[in-house]
Design a protein that fits this description.
Blueprint lengths: L14 H5 L7 H15 L7 H22 L1 H10 L18 H22 L4 E9 L23 E14 L4 E12 L2 E15 L2 E10 L5 E11 L2 E12 L2 E15 L2 E9 L4 E9 L3 E10 L4 E9 L7 E9 L2 E11 L4 E11 L2 E10 L2 E10 L4 H41 L1 H31 L3 E10 L12 E4 L1 H6 L6 E3 L20 E8 L2 E8 L4 E3 L10 E2 L11 H9 L1
Parallel strand pairs: 1-17
Antiparallel strand pairs: 1-2, 2-3, 3-4, 4-5, 5-6, 6-7, 7-8, 8-9, 9-10, 10-11, 11-12, 12-13, 13-14, 14-15, 15-16, 16-17, 18-19, 18-21, 20-23, 21-22, 22-24
Helix pairs in contact: 2-3, 3-4, 3-7, 4-5, 7-9
Protein name: DnaJ homolog subfamily C member 11
Subcellular location: Mitochondrion outer membrane
Membrane topology: Peripheral membrane protein
Amino acid sequence: MASALEDDDISTDDYYSLLNVRREATNDELKAAYRRLCMLYHPDKHRDPELKTQAEQLFNLVHEAYEVLSDPQARAIYDIYGKRGLDVDGWEVVERKRTPAEIREEYERLQAEREERRLQQRTNPKGTISVGIDATDLFDRYDEDYEDVAGGGVPHVEINRMHISQSIEAPLTTKDTAILSGSLSTHNGNGGGTINLALRRVTSAKGWGEIELGAGDTHGPLFGMKIFRNLTSRSFVTAQCGLQFSSRGVRPGVTTVLARHLDKNTMGYLQWRWGIQSSMNTSIVRDTKSSHFTFAVQLGIPHTFMMMSYQYKFQDDDQTKIKGSVKSGFFGTVVEYGAERKISRHSVLGATVSVGVPQGVSLKIKLNRASQTYFFPIHLTDELLPSAVFYATVGPLVFYLAIQQLIIRPYVRAQKEQDLEKQRESSASNIARKKQEAESAVLLMQESVRRIIEAEESRMGLIILNAWYGKFVTDNSRRHERAKVIDVTVPLQCLVKDSKLILTEATKSGLPGFYDPCVGEEKSLKVLYQFRGVMHQVLSGDAEPLRIPKQFNRRKGYLWMNKIDLAQRLTAAEKIFLMCS
């Protein structure tokens, strides 16, 4: 796809699709396609005043496409900026006499300047809200006379802790960034807060440094420094030191992390921490397209443990993941398992069941919405009760399926329809213009199509019997949807040459005689054709290349049909005549 200086689509005319050539097409390929369309649309070939006017418009459009793509400088500008880059009256992007390489360098410079302007306007907010819930009364009953107490028959569920944190980044220059963060926490009626300010500077392409200042009513003032440095292309190191001031004095702390790429998908880490919680930790993390694996061992005060986790990633549109982990140390043993799934464009919902000794059973629900995280740890019981494990596992699954059917899917469907409607409204005038051009092109193709069919029939060649382009509904679950297709039999037959039809890898809506009948929706091309007296059918995606007929028609997706009595049917030429008249 051609790059663009702006995020929005800057070109409504795809010159490559109009000429039906590859984006890497040579000058000879461009010239052959241009000559063929010129013979079709040349105004002098049409005597009817209305057809002559329509031919002039299409001829000028084809000539414009050829002029741009046959000129190396103009083609480089078009490939990068789209059609807007060629409009002198709009904004002059680069000198027209530069080479394609110089044009691309200029484009990269302009992109860097644009990114800098965007950077200065971006704050990149991030936040976390955590609400701890104590639901042990649902499963733990310590008092035998509990039910005799007034209100004792209703389990007591309460919020026992809450944590809120927020941070924003304010880019000062392309190298300097200020980070402001704060947090509030409360636990069983006691709480406090902190505020931190960090200044980060990129010192070179290999590293950066950061200074942090903080204050709070629980730990006192904080001063810290952090350094990141790439040692080689496969390893890096981070070093962090801090001074925590409190009523007990100054508490220093140092943390160092050394990381190295073991292979393409595997990282190894070594961490040393000295200070309030001294420890040594080593871990291996392997992340692939289908899985994520972590193994870690830590020796330290007060926590020494060994941990192993595995996550499997399903290759579906919802980015479903299932995970499990085991962590064992001086504190006990914890087994966790769970899953997460994308529920909308910017939201991911996850649930994890934690079973441990002596921690008991907990359910952790997490919702990521854009850059905000909402976390709800629910403590169910202090003991290992099978009933708690069962309800913690089945409950969220049943709840998710109900919410998915009643809320999420209808919302996503409505949001998609709303986005499509906005896209249709914004492109309505352009689609109307393209539709008019396509109808004019079909009228101008009639004579050429008659000659092509006569030549193909004389040698038992390629005849396009029927062709449709647009959205097809074949799934029974989507029978309520309406198919949105247009008849493109004539335009496709016009593209047949020497008993072959070749379409390049580009959207077919830009081909002569085509237009987009369903903006923003998935489209395909369905062709019923006759070759050597035998009928075949093929279905091709919108941007997929197509070449028919295939040798022996062995390619998967082709539907073979038995030979029919052609004498009992209308000839292809008669069908085209009836469709065009």
